[in-house]
Amino acid sequence: MRLLFGSCFTLLLAAAIGLGATWMTITRGIAFGSLSIGAWTAWPKSGSVDIDPYTRATIARTGELPIGVGDGVAFYARTDDSGHNFDGRCTFTVSGMTPAARYWTLTLYNLDGGLVANALDRHGFTSEEIVRDAEGRFVITVAPQARPGNWLPTGGIERYVLAWRLYDTPIGVATRTTKEGPMPAIARKACS
Amino acid sequence: MIRVLLWVLGAVLLGGIVHLATVLVLPRAASQDAYSRLVPLTKVNAVVPLPSPTAEASIMPFMDPAFTAAVCRYDLSSGVIKLNVPLSQAYTSVTFYTRNSVAYYAIDDRAAGRRAIELDLMTPEQHAQVPEEEDVTAADRLIIESPTTTGLIVLRALAPEPGLMPMARRALANAQCRLGPVQ
């Protein structure tokens, strides 16, 4: 009797632990081999055959197709440089320099990876469209209301993700230091 | 007490096995992965343009709205794929994915050179059948080996500004993905 009860208890607990751990790792996006520069994180290996099993399971669930390593690399940010979560009701600035790449794009997504509706129908910038100063630096203002210069509308949603994609770039699996890839700084300015 | 702890320890070990097994099985069992989403929208061994992502609808999450994309869903069981992608003015890339969304090869316009990306896609078995002289004379044609019989070729062309989107679409509209003889 005790044996029966014990094995049932063990099996149920094992199922709960196993499935719970799988669910946690896959929804939270745990992946190995990440490359973090400031608030930006990339998983260059996810676009190659060296992809780890956790990332494989995650993309199978989300339905995403990762950028191939011969194509480019995608950096994602959910917070500013001091760790404040992005909030679509606040103003954030993304400024500075970018690593060497033939082209780059910056896109704002909701947490599910969808684009956010806004009056301008603007969802991001490419390296060709951006307005720069004489030294080649730029400031992108991510804010709910219209701003002069490079304005990226948030549509007022609460949480969002910024994706910085570099195409035809030496940044990738072999990149180790931030010196090789200076990513733009992100700062929170004001909250309305 | 000891007995209960042993049962719990057993549960933790077994739970670890369940966890690893589900993580490994999930990519094969997923019904909403990229390939499954693209099946109703695409044809086998033909290039089909994908609608650009909008705020209302996006086929896959995290699609880059600055790009226009087209997909060739391939099946190598009855031949090899001959791919020809004319280059757009800005940036064009081709990425190969297995049936389970693993990007096993990607090439951009600069690496391809000239005016088009030209590739032959085949399984390792089909590659072994290609006569060796053939391999040499066709040295300017790149041969890619697909780890799976089916998969996706995703063609992407950048529109550096929204006004150039029609140009990028036109470039991909002329792309060809067709079945050829093994040899």
Mean pLDDT of chain A: 87
The residue fraction in helices of chain A comes out at 10-25%
* Strands side by side in the biggest sheet of chain B: 1-2-8-4-5
Strand order of the biggest β-sheet of chain A: 1-2-3-9-5-6
CATH superfamily of the largest domain in chain A: Domain of unknown function DUF1214, C-terminal domain
- What fold name stands as the CATH topology of the largest domain in chain B? Immunoglobulin-like
Shape annotation of chain B: globular
Q: How many H/I helical runs of chain B? A: 6
Separation of the first and last Cα atoms of chain B: 71 Å
Low-confidence stretches of chain B: none
Strand segment tally of chain B: 9
Beta strand % of chain A: 25-35%
The number of helical runs of chain A is 2
Word description of this protein:
The complex is a heterodimer of chains A (192) and B (183). Chain A contains 2 helices and 10 strands; from the N terminus they run αββαββββββββ. Chain A is α+β, with helices and mostly antiparallel strands. Chain A has 2 domains: 1-30; 31-191, Domain of unknown function DUF1214, C-terminal domain (Jelly Rolls, Sandwich), CATH 2.60.120. In chain A, the strands form 2 sheets. In chain A, strands 1-2-3-9-5-6 form a 6-stranded antiparallel β-sheet, with no helix packed on it. In chain A, strands 8-7-4-10 form a 4-stranded mixed β-sheet, with no helix packed on it. Chain A is globular, with a radius of gyration of 20 Å. The model of chain A has no long low-confidence stretch (mean pLDDT 87). With 183 residues, chain B is α+β, with helices and mostly antiparallel strands. In chain B, the strands form 2 sheets. In chain B, strands 1-2-8-4-5 form a 5-stranded antiparallel β-sheet. At the A-B interface, helix 1, helix 2, strand 5 and strand 9 of A face helix 1, helix 2, strand 4, strand 5 and strand 8 of B.
